[in-house]
Structures are given as structure tokens and as C-alpha cells.
Amino acid sequence: MRKTVKPRDKRFKIAHREALIGVILVIINFVWWYGFGYGLGSEKVENYTYVFGLPAWFFYSCILGFIVMLVLVIISVKFFFKEVPFDNEEGDL
Questions:
Q1: What pLDDT does 84 receive?
Q2: DSSP conformation letters of the chain
Q3: Could you tell me the CA-to-CA distances from 75 to 44, 65, 70, 71, 79 in Å, in that order?
Q4: Which class for 74: exposed (0-12), middle (13-18), buried (19 or more C-beta within 10 A)?
Q5: pTM here?
Q6: At what angle do helices 65-80 and 10-40 cross, to 10 degrees?
Q7: Residue 65 has what pLDDT?
Q8: Which residues are bridge partners to 54 per DSSP?
Q9: Cβ count within 10 A of residue 13
Q10: Is residue 48 a contact partner of residue 92, using CB atoms and an 8 Å limit?
Q11: Which of 5, 14, 50, 61 could form a disulfide with 36, with the two C-beta atoms 3.0–4.6 Å apart?
Q12: How far apart are CA 55 and CA 51, in angstroms?
């Protein structure tokens, strides 16, 4: 017996693409945070440099990283995400 396959809703394709963008953003955030946090923060405390009174590793990983990720998320949502209706009709996607 042969199964009939319904054509996939176009909203799933959009949702999968947007989920992939979200995963990529999370990976970028983790690499940024880990790189600066453990890269600069693994020195002895006496050798730390400070930015605005904060250790450089903390400033770059947490403060600047948050600002960079905020900008990346805003750009991603503005240019790559689409408005998707949640009702049953597909509309003009």
C-alpha cells in the first residue's frame, strides 16, 4: 500500500530556517563568550587589564558580547525572519 504524502506547509520551511538562524546565533554567542572569558580570563589576576573598571575578559565576554549579540539578533529578525500567520490558511507565503 502506497502512502500519499501531503505537501508540506510552507510555514514549516520558514520555521526550520529561522530555528537554524537561532542555533547559529547561540553558537556565535557561546564562542564569543567562551573565547573572551577563558582566553583573557585564564591569566593571573595580577596580569589582568581593565576596561571601565571591569576586568577585560569580563567586559569583552559579558558586556560587549551582549551588545554584539543584541545587534546580531536585531539584524537577523529585521532581515531574515518573516511574519507567519498561525491560522490554517497558508496565505501568500
A1: 83
A2: -PPP-PPPPHHHHHHHHHHHHHHHHHHHHHHHHHHHHHHHTTS-GGG--EETTEEHHHIIIIIIHHHHHHHHHHHHHHHH------SS-----
A3: 37, 15, 9, 6, 6
A4: exposed
A5: 0.76
A6: 170
A7: 95
A8: 51
A9: 11
A10: no
A11: 61
A12: 6
Report residue 12 as a C-alpha cell. 514549516
CA angle 12, 16, 19 (to 5 degrees): 135
Q: 30-74: per-residue pLDDT in tens?
A: 999 999 988 887 888 888 899 999 999 999 999 999 999 999 999
Cell of 9: 506547509
| Residue given cell 529585521 in the structure block | 78
